[in-house]
Amino acid sequence: MDCATWVPSGLSSEAAAIATALGRCIVDAPELLEKLVALLKIQDQQRRSEMSNTPKAIVLEATRALSRDGRENAYAKEIAAEANRLLKVRGERAQLSPEKVGHQLKGSVCALARYHKLAMA
């Protein structure tokens, strides 16, 4: 296997970049490359799982759930209630207040506005 053309599969772009960088150091050992990808897959899945439980991810999921109901608007209190329902279903004890939801939404909207401004430049 030519290490210059080796492309790891089944990983996020971040983990694939790490695998590619480390894989360049491995020559004539395809089984070692496979083990490298297997180890990185485990770490990548753990990272994704941890990220899906962040307040920002929970608020996004709750907002999407409310928008699927055909709603165009929702108050932070309603989003917090949906986020807390999702947390409870997952067995989490944490609760998000409407204020915390508002901060998460404000940060997301500000980031989106900055991205849009950069894209338009």
What brief labels describe this structure?
about 120 residues; elongated; 5 helices
3D structure, described in words:
The protein is mainly α. 70% of the residues lie in helices and 0% in strands. The protein has five helices and no strands. Helix 3 (55-68) crosses helix 4 (76-89). The longest helix is centred in the middle third of the chain and has 23 residues, at 30-52. The radius of gyration is 20 Å and the shape is elongated. It starts with 12 loop residues before the first helix and ends with a helix. The relative contact order is 0.09.
Structural class: mainly alpha
| Poorly predicted runs | none
Q: How many whole angstroms does the radius of gyration measure?
A: 20 Å
Task: Quote the average pLDDT.
Answer: 83
N-C termini distance: 43 Å
**Approximately how much beta-strand content do the residues carry?**
under 5%
- Biggest β-sheet description: none
Q: Which series of helices and strands comes N to C? A: HHHHH
The total count of helices amounts to: 5
What would a concise description of this structure say?
By secondary structure, the protein is mainly α.
Secondary structure layout:
Layout: H1 13-23, H2 30-52, H3 55-68, H4 76-89, H5 98-120
